[in-house]
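Predict structure. Chain length: 285.
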Amino acid sequence: MMKEITAGLALALVSSGGFATEPTTSLGGKAKVEFPDRDKLKEAYEAPGWKTLWADEFETAGLPDAAKWNYEEGRVRNREDQYYVRNRRENARVENGHLIITARHEPWEGADVTSACLITLGKFDFCHGKLEIRARLPKGRGTWPALWLMGSNYEQAGWPHCGEIDLMEFVGFMPDVLHFTVHTDAFNHSRQNQQGTTLEVERLSEEFHRYGLLWMADELVWFFDGEPVFRYANAHAGASQWPFDHPAYILMNLAIGGTWGGREGVDPGMLPSEFVVDYVRVWQR
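Prediction complete.
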């Protein structure tokens, strides 16, 4: 979410019922990625023995739990339309067991849109383990929600040196496409060689789905509804390619417009727009 991502990659369902992806490569092209070890990865993801390290089930109505969540505030990145507001129920509230992040058309500190970006910076971070977030995406041209991780050394190292893992990104002008991406010093949008893939899924704004990550010492593996969809390996070529031996914090936000979300304009009639999160769970062995 620190950047604009090249879109338009395809994902096909293979006859076995598994997924095969075509991610961007280090040269910006496409390379078929399949999962011959699919069953092993699913077993590792679903196996007993994971211990809950941190979670929010969003069971208490009102503002998000201040012991677990912090906020970004202001006009933060990517020339987006929204002003991120903190501690405001109109933009982030817990209701009926869900966190609801809402973007609204209203004037605020020079912006015409308000929204929220919840972060665990200063509250919680982790290194290696399993992360899963169940969510239902907003709809409408101009929406740009994301679930992601940023290296906790962001303020010291800067982006992209700190490393970024995009568990899920979505832009409303491609309503049936999910994006899974990783950014490092060596591979990022500024170099036009970010590593990632896309997945075509219908009714993303009508149904909840599970977005998961296995963060291991030698590999990152993304999961969608329990199926592996993308992987990024540690090539042991240094921190420029693998900055993921250090803790990272969680971010969840709903942006409007900007360099990518607003590429085909913003439909003002779709506001207010809601990004609904059912739970956030982190486990370790």
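Summary: The chain is about 5% helix and 40% strand.
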